[in-house]
């Protein structure tokens, strides 16, 4: 499930995104809409089955000025690769609490006094969850020196450019790609808004716990007049997934 893990933002608690509509009187032709539905299905199929195919689909069908919206959450707003032993900031999400505090390349030494080791991340000892506005102190290594930082949790509304999406795919492990099972349950289209909705079901095995989990997901594809994906986002059952893996949301 690396294609999901490489897009991980800490913590991923909510996967909801609202987009602006097409707002044009003219409707997309039936022929063009059928082509868009085909693109959406190929995007989903490749995402669940093959890294190279998925990279090709995104490269071909995502607009150069398009964005992927993985969902809002309460947190800090930075990305890192959880498969690495060290917790290194890949990039900071725009307009997030981490802006002006963290920099790309920062390596976490500790968070709240707890060492930022891979073991502590995976067993839940090192946690980034909490209430909005709650401050957290951390130590990062920057340019060879340890730096004390402090920031507060807040609403993060991330979006990824086409280049960032492709970089995430390329960094994933092809041998550890894809779902145990999946199916496209239903597809619906809105010709006026040039939007395709796809309801999917999937089952994965978690790399850390070895437990299987399943969930439903609704993905929204917004197309431009050239038939390319200008915006993609999804709604998923994240709380259900966490419950199946033995976690719970508590205050």
TrEMBL record:
Signal peptide location: 1-20
Keywords from the named record: Signal
Pfam families reported in the protein's UniProt record: PDZ_2
All residue ranges annotated as the PDZ domain in the record: 57-155
Protein name in UniProt: PDZ domain protein
Organism: SAR86 cluster bacterium SAR86E
């Amino acid at each position: 499930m690396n294609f999901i893990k490489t897009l991980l933002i800490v913590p991923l608690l909510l996967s909801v995104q609202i987009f602006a509509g097409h707002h044009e009187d003219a409707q997309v032709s039936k022929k063009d809409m059928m082509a868009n539905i085909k693109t959406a299905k190929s995007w989903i199929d490749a995402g669940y089955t093959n890294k190279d195919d998925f990279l090709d689909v995104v490269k071909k069908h995502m607009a150069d000025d398009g964005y992927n919206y993985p969902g809002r959450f309460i947190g800090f707003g930075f990305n890192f690769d959880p498969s690495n032993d060290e917790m290194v900031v890949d990039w900071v999400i725009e307009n997030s609490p981490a802006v002006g505090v963290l920099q790309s390349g920062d390596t976490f030494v500790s968070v709240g006094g707890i060492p930022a080791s891979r073991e502590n991340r995976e067993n839940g000892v090192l946690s980034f969850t909490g209430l909005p506005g709650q401050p957290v102190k951390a130590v990062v290594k920057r340019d060879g020196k340890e730096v004390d930082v402090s920031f507060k949790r807040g609403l993060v509304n991330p979006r990824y450019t086409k280049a960032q999406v492709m970089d995430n795919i390329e960094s994933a492990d092809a041998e550890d790609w894809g779902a145990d099972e999946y199916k496209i349950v239903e597809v619906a289209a809105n010709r006026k808004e040039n939007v395709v909705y796809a309801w999917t079901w999937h089952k994965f095995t978690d790399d850390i716990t070895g437990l299987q989990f399943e969930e439903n997901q609704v993905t929204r594809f917004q197309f431009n007049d050239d038939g390319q994906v200008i915006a993609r986002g999804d709604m998923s059952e994240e709380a259900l997934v966490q419950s199946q893996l033995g976690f719970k949301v508590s205050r």
